[in-house]
Task: structure prediction
Amino acid sequence: MTTERFVETNGLRYHVVEWPAEGPFVLLAHGFLDLAWSWRGVAERLQAQGYHCVAWDWRGHGESDHVGQGGYYHFPDYVLDLEYLIPQITGDRSVHLVGHSMGGTISTMYAGLRSDRLASLTLVEGLGPPNWGFEKTPEKFRAWLDSVEKIRTRPKRSLTLESALRRMRIQNPELPEELGEFLAEKATVEIDGRRRWRFDPLHRTTAPMPFRTEVFNTFLHRIEVPTLVIAAERGFRLPDERERYQQIPDHRFVEIADVGHMIHWMRPDALADAIVSLVR
Result:
């Protein structure tokens, strides 16, 4: 069984999907340009083993609200979302937080601040983006200004489910037909007879602030719960990957073979098994 609902918190309405069961709460945080429904394969496997799974669409993704006029999307905004979302979703229960990619970066920051609210943390290819030097900040800002202007002046493009699936397969050519069709339908919406992506077009712009590893590390070494770090053999591997996860006091590292970045799409069985190895 799966249920859907909307939660209003932090000034926005968030779309929440649940796979209910009697066991521990597992929260599933998706990555950039993804959505809650992409966790279906993992959540169904965990639910079958008694885990209550909850996923949501981040702001500007899926069926959750976009930010208002003049707003933008920064990591601190997502961390604040998590601060308000978790109590509304789970009450005062201790939870197992799982984050993929961008969702893993956000979950890391949250866990470094609120470990007392968590039972465990799982980072699925979620150790942050590559480091950027401070000297590149002006060019990042310039790219941001230019890309925002481009998005705001570009005519809106229409899609079909077939063209949406083709675009999803550009980076994920192995995406199975059935799953691809399901995700394409959930990730798009029909408006005035034309289909469009649900995510906010602002996500197509270049964020202005450089990512700094030394700042991110200050969150990693503050994590006080058992942490499972999961990497894909063919995923987005960082040159300083090992140095990053070794900052976490209580960590275990697992690599899943013969899979790319979207582990939860392509290998939900292996990912669910890995999560269960930590969440007992």
About this structure: Strands lie at 3-9, 12-19, 25-29, 52-56, 95-100, 118-124, 188-191, 194-197, 227-234, 251-260. The two ends are 22 Å apart (CA to CA). The chain has a mean pLDDT of 95. DSSP finds ten helices and ten strands in the chain.
